Amino acid sequence: MPGFTKNPKIPAILVLEDGRTFRGRAYGAVGETFGEAVFSTGMTGYQETLTDPSYHRQVVVMTAPHVGNTGVNDEDPESKRIWVAGYVVRDPARAPSNWRSRRTLDEELAAQGVVGISAIDTRALTRHLRERGAMRVGIFSGEAIADDAALLAKVRAVPQMKGADLSGEVATTERYVVPAIGTKRFTVAAVDLGIKGMTPHRMAERGIEVHVLPANATVEDVYAVNPDGVFFSNGPGDPATADHPVSVMRAVLERGTPLFGICFGNQILGRALGFGTYKLKYGHRGINQPVQDRTTGKVEVTAHNHGFAVDAPLDGPSDTPYGRVEVSHVCLNDNVVEGLQLLDRPAFSVQYHPEAAAGPHDAAYLFDRFVSLMEGQRA
């Protein structure tokens, strides 16, 4: 029957670096793959998750048990390819059912060479990662399967995410422009560290012409577009390795240009201000994370994908070389810093995704806050 998974009987095995294994069936491409095992709590938006460059070198475990029921379309990808290193689901949809669907999720994974596994207890795997923390993992199927000891040795030979410098591997290599929708009001230089396609679109909706620049863009490249504001995007890897973006951001802060950063951009702002960063035990991933905007008291449901965080004090403003800064947003699950705001310069950042494809849209106002900073600077 059309739409059924192509590999219903090919065995597969998932091996974690601590030696725990899960046996199931191949899903997507057949072979082997490696990465960091993380879990996403979103019940929808799997296509946006797969194509988010921030998931580079990560094997994503879906906590929702039933995945693939709306198939794959050509409108929702956040980039030109799938970036996850591997995909783990419990019950793949037997056939997609959506008017926009063009092919099955299984077919898309196979076509792009993404090795996955299905028919395992993803709840048990998620609980294991919550208790032990995100860790290296391998998925093996078909002829790639060998004895457990040999597979475990392969997994333990994989580089860890801590210390990984990855933004240059996912960012654009050439500058491109996303034109403003309607009347152009502002120009923004966006440093691409793994940007999602919806992000410049959200700015374009507000009359912003967005010049997307490579991750290795210099200060001169940024100001060559005569920007009204500068944006630093999300992206993969350890922010402790991002010395070049940090130096560029410090130059932007020196000039007092309105600045906005999300996710990786938040971590870079933290470093630029003199704060440290650290790796979370298992991170925040999904589209149902509660965050409080401490500037308004409002609680938002937000979209996250980060395994690192900024180490900044929560109990009041801190002095930095660029003036005072305060923690503007905090996660209500674990008190992780989710946003920074400078009090003496026009700059702020959040640790999550206000562009939020495929939702929620509680945090969309942050793009309006960026516009307000540029309006204020122009005035």
Explain the layout of strands and helices.
Blueprint: E1 11-16, E2 21-28, E3 32-40, H1 46-50, E4 58-62, E5 66-67, E6 86-88, E7 91-92, H2 105-111, E8 115-118, H3 122-132, E9 135-141, H4 148-156, H5 167-170, E10 176-178, E11 186-191, H6 198-204, E12 208-213, H7 219-223, E13 229-232, H8 243-255, E14 259-262, H9 264-272, E15 276-293, E16 299-311, E17 318-320, E18 323-331, E19 337-342, E20 347-350, H10 365-378
Parallel strand pairs: 3-4, 4-6, 5-7, 6-8, 11-12, 11-13, 13-14, 14-20
Antiparallel strand pairs: 1-2, 1-9, 2-8, 3-9, 10-12, 15-16, 15-18, 17-18, 18-19, 19-20
Polypeptide structure, described:
By secondary structure, the chain is α/β, with parallel strands linked by helices. Helix content is 22%, strand content 32%. The protein has helices at 46-50, 105-111, 122-132, 148-156, 167-170, 198-204, 219-223, 243-255, 264-272, 365-378; strands at residues 11-16, 21-28, 32-40, 58-62, 66-67, 86-88, 91-92, 115-118, 135-141, 176-178, 186-191, 208-213, 229-232, 259-262, 276-293, 299-311, 318-320, 323-331, 337-342, 347-350. Strands 10, 11, 12, 13, 14, 15, 16, 17, 18, 19 and 20 form an eleven-stranded mixed sheet that branches. It has a seven-stranded mixed β-barrel with strand order 1-2-8-6-4-3-9. Strands 5-7 form a two-stranded parallel sheet. The model is unreliable at 1-5 (pLDDT under 50).
